[in-house]
Batch of 2 targets.
Target 1
Amino acid sequence: MGFKNYILVCGGTGCESSRSDLIYRNLIEEAKSQGVEDQVQVIKTGGFGFCEQGPIVKVLPEDSFYVQVKPEDAKEIIAEHVVKGREVTRLLYIKEKRKPYEEVHDIQFYNKQLRIVLRNCGSIDPENVDEYIAADGYKALEKVLFEMKPDDVIAELKTAGLRGRGGAGFPTWMKWNFTKQAEGDVKYVVCNADEGDPGAYMDRSTLEGDPHSVLEAMTICGYTIGAHQGYIYIRAEYPLAIHRLEVAMKQAREYGLLGKDILGSGFDFDIEIRLGAGAFVCGEETALLQSIEGHRGMPLPRPPFPAVKGLFGKPTVINNVETWANIPVIITKGGAWFASIGTDDSHGTKVFALTGKICNSGLVEVPMGTTLREIVYDVGGGIAKGKKFKAVQTGGPSGGVITEENLDTPIDFGSLQRIGSMMGSGGMIVMDEDDCIVDVAKFYLNFTVDESCGKCAPCRIGGKSLMGILEKITLGNGTEEDIEQINQIALAMKKGSLCALGQTAPNPVLSSLKYFPEEYEAHIVEKRCPAGKCKKLIRYQINPEKCIGCTACSRKCPVGAISGEVKKPHRIDAKACIKCGVCKSTCKFGAIEVK
């Protein structure tokens, strides 16, 4: 029997932290208490991507898009939408004057997106294999096992032009082919789900919303290269993604889609989960393999590459979650279809975690070639609080800053490299005028210094030395000679580090130096932080023309550094001021200024 309405509730980590699970349970209970449980089906899905507006509830067939829903709203949704057949207008996302019953795709956040990797996230129950199958799930595996030879799969991937989405952009077909041609009866397939970039959650969300797509793709790879065992390496901090993977694997085995004699084809393939302890360096493939084997996660010299000598010394294919999620669609729709999307050297789409000083933060999937301006202003809705755009960091701790003059750069592997950044796994952090570029560079460098495994001296010593110089600059003790020293240390790290962590760690510093030399000069020569972030380089003062003497700042000052009479301009004692900024945030008249 069909239902009158289907209610989809976001069940991603972000929304669950905002009590979406209670919303889900309340909707079920309300449907029962209002006597319409036979008219409505409530489904918990993965994330919808529009994290800024979560928790999100979507009602079909009207395609009603309810945002910032609270558990107590469940009663009204059932009473109004299901029982009376009218939308709850106050919960609709109407920032673009969206009319009732208008399609969700018309919302600005979505209308430039093309969801291939995220195709099922927010539309199916990730813990129900039947829903994945109804959305063409395992159709690609069936096609591969009964209609294609391993070389046919390789050819299709070559036609598609899919490149690894983990950051390096290596052609996927070539990696698979190397392992396929490698000698040996035992081979392995590995999924790298060790997502560690600050602000990044693309892989986690994909696994939470569509775990079967990764299982299906890994099984296809196993058939193609002659492997019978796969491993998913995922950090233990992702409990929801781990749970949904475990449920999906159990269901796949029950349906004959994983394990022995898959779909009666005679092909055996199974997958195990290995938990990581959160080491960023284990995102590097050789360190990841070391960790799976039970060793400390430290990179190994290459060659030999994992495709020839990988896990337990056997040929191994390693791809990240986003790369795997593309595979079933390529097989079902064809490599030529996939290749028609994107640019000449970067086909398909790319998923980004859009965060920072942006109006619409969330998970975004756009065709390769989409410009940064389109992502920041069209999809992201521009800079929050009406502030001025300063830069956007792509590629996480391995990438670089991109300034306003490069906002029209198309997003693809080559274009980002040419302006000193990189695609990376998909982190995209937007900065505004209040961000200090030196402080941002210091933040990323501090992250990589903490995450260095310490195996090689260029990374271990070089990173610490660079960190010391940036710390010196932000404390007001920098000299002009420091810039030359930064460049020399960065070059040594790039040339001498064993793995990509050390080789790319200087990138945020070098790109910030390239595009914001005047900000470094202000810190070093003028002993001033233009953004007012570096405490040692700022001074608070009160503009007497704006101060009305309300005493709010003096009452909030924790050290009593502000004095003055009521209704008369106040003063700040610079020697007593601890530069906490409470006065500035308290003043409603903009009288507190940073110098």
Note: The radius of gyration is 27 Å.
Target 2
Amino acid sequence: MTKTLSTLFVLLLLAGNAVAQDNFTYTPQNPKPGDVITITYEPSGTLLGTMKPVEAVYYVSGYAPGGYKNLDADELVLTRQGKKYTGTIKTDTAAALVTLGFSADKNFDNNFNKGYYIILNEGEKPRKGAHTALSFFYQFDGSRVGVERDAEKALEAVKKEMEQNADVKKELLPMYVRLVSTVKKEEAPALVQKEIETFIKAGLKTEDDYTALQNLYNATRQPEQGKLVTELIKQKYPQGKWQVNETIQKFYGEKDPAKKLAMLKEIEAKTETDEAWKGLKNNLDFFKQQYLTTYVAKKDWEGLRKAMKEVEFDNKAQLTSFYNNTAWNMQGDSTELALAEEMSRIATMYAKAEMTKPTGKKPTYLTTKQWENERKMGYAMYADTYAMIMYRMGQYKKGLPYAKEAAITIHKGADAEQNNTYALLAEKALPVKQYKKELEDFVKAGKATKDMKDILKRTYVKEKGSDAHFDDYVAALMKESHTKMLAELRKSMLNETAPSFALLDLKGNNVNIQDLKGKVVVADFWATWCGPCIASFPAMQKMVNKYKDNEQVKFVFINTWENGEDKNKLAGDFITKSQYNFQVLMDKEDKVVQQFKVEGIPTKFVIDGNGVIRFKSVGYNSSEDAMMAELDAMIDLAKQSTAKTF
């Protein structure tokens, strides 16, 4: 009887490890690390009935001291048999979890936001680290296969890991605390306090134990207790690891180049001799980059030239990234163009060589195609920088091939800012006949900028003798762009009920989204520390001004993930200083951002008058015109979906 019950329990356990979907199966049913797994998939969910070829990717992850570790990623070769697809995956002997993504025409089947995954087993239970990896999947990595962040599923997974592997509980407690505080806000304080008490009772034997306790107090917003533990750590471990963090923080804050160099050399020496510092060896190139940045901040170009010869980088990619970013900023105000050109040229030549013949191995978190695309996009970015420097230096014909390769050959005209660089050079280096149609096509595609329209205006005046009817000419081009954009956006329209929420604005007024039914609501999540959020605000101000008299459209700017104790003051001072007239809602407890499953900011949601999310836009691509045109189109479509009911 006991044997039968035990066998039944194991079968139930293994069944619970599998993704319960009829359209997705795998063999062996109890896969182990190192096994070759054969998967069978039939299109479902958003791919149900698709006529497009199905593509697949897989990611293999495992456990190492310190937690989650990427082991492999690649495209999965599929063989079609009727309605079903099959493929095989060779797993690493260190593997614990395999996650998969199935897509057609860039549209993922996310298995109703559960994703597709295979937990590997060790004996009769999931391998150590499998559920930790699954928790990371639901917190972060799922987005790469169309799965939105899900804190509840992530919490469930990390709880299973802690239950099955008691020796990793201390390591996972900070993650558990963060997730439980998000998912179970009411119960969290009691649950977390219980864990802290259990943690203390188990005994604080090492500096890592004290640090873990410190992190728990910080995660539960008990700063005084956290400070007390910090002092205890310093007393008990005067030569401990805490010194590493403090030294690094001082290094980051040091603005004097000579002092920073001395600190850099000290850090470099310690990574060779001190066990506590050896883990930072891989970060040395980043620290060297930080040292060089002190000269950039002071615009001490002669000092930068000398410093660049003093430090050697092990990772050339880190150095060329610094060169490209610095050169781009320098060209903006035509500063030291000769030095900017030198740095940009080195970076661009390196990126081009890497694009065609990479010197390093494929990163374990990227598939082969993703890695190829990343190298290609990296080269396009660096080539665009070099082309823009050539424009500033008046070397138009030299810069044009780089701009064309970036904007047209690689990006196919889909990047407005790189189109802009190409247009500026083309006007100077090519006959009107050669570039006019290309610029018109950029406008039609909604990938144009103000500079491009100015170039077209100059061209128009030369041809017509005046600017009469120029606005009609551009409007006709933009109408085609708007029509195409509407058609593309219709394909990506969402149909998700927006979470209900009520927040106070900076004036203390309560704003309830339920009171905005019947209106199209544009909700923009932001924070004062978020660079891309701030960069998008001039364009967003123009949108607010455009719709200020439109009773059908409402903009709200939800301040979230804000740092500091007085969040109202931080947000209010920023808005006042910047002279924006946004209605800012304060998500002080980060509750609403979680309800909307936001993974990064800025994120904008366009909600129709029926309370349905129609669009979600993440990030800012730095082109005002392109962003505004797209948001206009989203608002138009949301109005149309509202009108069907109201």
Note: The first helix runs from residue 2 to 17.
